[in-house]
Specification:
343 residues; mainly alpha; Rossmann fold; Tyrosyl-Transfer RNA Synthetase; 2 domains; 7% strand; binds tryptophanyl-5'AMP
């Protein structure tokens, strides 16, 4: 069975961009593929963050993923830092990764502008991503469009490692991306990608009131200044969102009423808000239930980490061997007795 790996940062709420672009796909694919889903806390610390809330945000992200339909009986859900082999493989892969490739990554160039002194972790972010995927020798990686460049680099790293250490074999498969139709959801500002760091999101667990308060001021077709101006739905982000949350009949009605200036933008947004609220209601309810039992979420993550560690351990034994490291011998019996490990 082909193997899928994907990850998400616990750097804020799970939003409808993540959901439409990636998480929905994970939920659908977990039935047909061996699936690993990772909350990537080691990636989240490459941006400014609060240590006091990292653990809580990690648990919340796992809770949201479970509420969105990740099923621990079908997928392995775990936290990246619970499997130390991610960091180990990242270090090893650093040694075959060209610096120039890291420097030309679009996300690195964007994010580096937010720092006066750019941390090396930000530059090496895509190597950790490569380690995530290659550690499980995954074949497929369902992601949004913004991760495509990182995956191209992952394939290049796999090729370079295989050429140098693969002993003539393709030890690391070259993972291919899987995109959805919603590969790049625009934020409520109507311009940038919907993103936790830009505050232009609708959260998967937002209340009906929060959803409406966020949608009300959202950008629409800029040519529609008054209610009487006919609009062009194709250039309106609200219309695009209708395509993911409303029935085909409603989408057709929205287009017709926009072009004919029969609805104002607020009318159109109200219908969208109602449909988003209805779509997200069961997810929100499941999340509220899970929030009552954090120990259940921790238990699921514990099980996931133990399975992931076993898989990661198998890969790393091969990797260390192929890279020529001296294998650690088990401690001699006498020293075990001295340390009280055996009588
Ligand atoms: P992250 O946490 O930014 O986002 C998680 C997933 O959501 C997708 N996504 C979007 N899709 C469509 N429209 C949007 N506006 C939108 N915003 C986010 C992302 O493409 C992603 O699939 N580096 C990754 C996490 C990661 C990873 C990995 C992914 C770490 N290791 C290994 C795959 C494989 C990230 O920051 O995603």
């Amino acid at each position: 069975m082909p193997r899928i790996f994907s990850g998400i940062q616990p750097s804020g709420e799970l939003h409808i961009g993540n959901w439409l672009g990636a998480v929905q796909n994970w939920v659908n694919l977990q039935r047909s593929y061996e699936t690993l889903i990772c909350v990537v806390d080691l990636h989240a610390i490459t941006a400014k963050y609060e240590a006091e809330s990292l653990a809580q945000r990690t648990r919340e992200m796992a809770t949201s993923l479970l509420a969105a339909g990740i099923d621990p009986d079908q997928a392995i859900l775990f936290v990246q830092s619970h499997v130390p082999e991610h960091s180990e493989l990242q270090w090893l892969l650093n040694t075959v990764t060209p610096l120039g490739e890291l420097e030309r990554m679009t996300q690195f160039k964007d994010k580096a502008q937010r720092f006066e002194s750019v941390p090396a972790g930000l530059l090496n972010y895509p190597v950790l991503m490569a380690a995530d995927v290659l550690l499980y020798r995954a074949d497929l990686v369902p992601v949004g469009e913004d991760q495509i460049q990182h995956l191209e680099l992952t394939r290049e790293i796999a090729r370079k490692w295989n050429a140098q250490f693969g002993r003539g074999e393709t030890f690391f498969p070259e993972p291919q991306p899987i995109l959805t139709e919603a590969k790049r959801i625009t934020g409520l500002d109507g311009q940038a990608k919907m993103s936790k760091s830009l505050g232009n999101t609708i959260g998967l667990l937002d209340t009906p009131e929060e959803i409406w308060q966020k949608l009300r001021p959202a950008k629409t077709d800029p040519a529609r200044v008054t209610r009487l101006d006919p609009g062009t739905p194709e250039i309106c982000n609200i219309y695009h969102l209708h395509q993911y949350f409303s029935s085909p009949e409603t989408v057709a009605l929205v287009a017709e009423n926009c072009r004919g200036a029969k609805w104002g933008c607020l009318d159109c947004k109200r219908v969208l808000a109602d449909n988003i609220i209805a779509t997200l209601k069961p997810i929100r309810e499941r999340a509220l239930g899970l929030q009552e039992q954090p120990e259940r979420v921790d238990e699921i993550l514990g099980d996931g980490a133990s399975t992931a560690r076993r898989m990661a351990g198998e890969t790393m034994r091969e990797v260390r061997d192929r890279m020529g490291f001296l294998m650690a011998a088990p401690p001699a019996l006498s020293s075990r007795v001295q340390r009280g490990l055996e009588s």
